[in-house]
Amino acid sequence: MKKLTIIGLLVVVVAVCLLLHWQHVESVARFDSEFRQQLAGVWLRQEAGMRCTNTVAADGSFVELSWFSHPDRTNTYRATGTWLVKDGRLIETVGSSSNSAEVTPHTGTARIIRSDAGEFVLRWPNSVEQVWQKIIP
């Protein structure tokens, strides 16, 4: 009788763990799908001396224009690539860049901290958070 009770409890624990895991997977998949739908459009990121606009198509491809202000000049760059959303992360692949110092192609992955229809926040490995705001025409 004691063995049956222990086996029964183990079956319940395993079933609960599987149910929680399935619910988590469903939640992440729903977030990914909703975020992908919001991603198409023009996004702006500004930091001290730098401004980027990123025009993202419905398929995740993008064109990014970046301006870096220095005391004596402004550098302007253009990059193209793709943004892919998977498992609550943004995977950026830069296929080409007009910045001769940037090696292309390259891929990086950032964790999506939060998002809504007008803004999302990313954290790249070993970096501070990046805030992207949607430009509404």
Descriptors for this entry?
137 residues; elongated; 8 strands; 28% helix; eight-stranded antiparallel barrel; Lipocalin; 1 helix; alpha+beta
Write structural notes for this entry.
The chain is an alpha+beta fold. The chain has a single domain, classed as Lipocalin (Beta Barrel). It contains 1 helix and 8 strands; from the N terminus they run αββββββββ. Strands 1-2-3-4-5-6-7-8 form an 8-stranded antiparallel barrel. The mean pLDDT is 86.
What's a quick, concise take on this entry?
With 137 residues, this protein is of the alpha+beta class. 28% of the residues lie in helices and 50% in strands.
**What topology, given as strand order, has the largest sheet?**
1-2-3-4-5-6-7-8
Kindly state the number of beta strands: 8
Compute the number of structural domains.
1
Order of helices and strands: HEEEEEEEE
Mean pLDDT: 86
Shape from CA axes? elongated
- The helix tally amounts to 1
Question: What fraction strand?
Answer: over 45%
Low-confidence stretches: none
Q: How many strands, what sense, and barrel or not for the largest sheet?
A: 8 strands, antiparallel, barrel
Task: Report the top-level CATH class.
Answer: Mainly Beta
Our measurement of the CA-to-CA distance between the termini, rounded to an integer number of angstroms, reads 70 Å
Q: What is the helix fraction of residues, given as a range? A: 25-40%
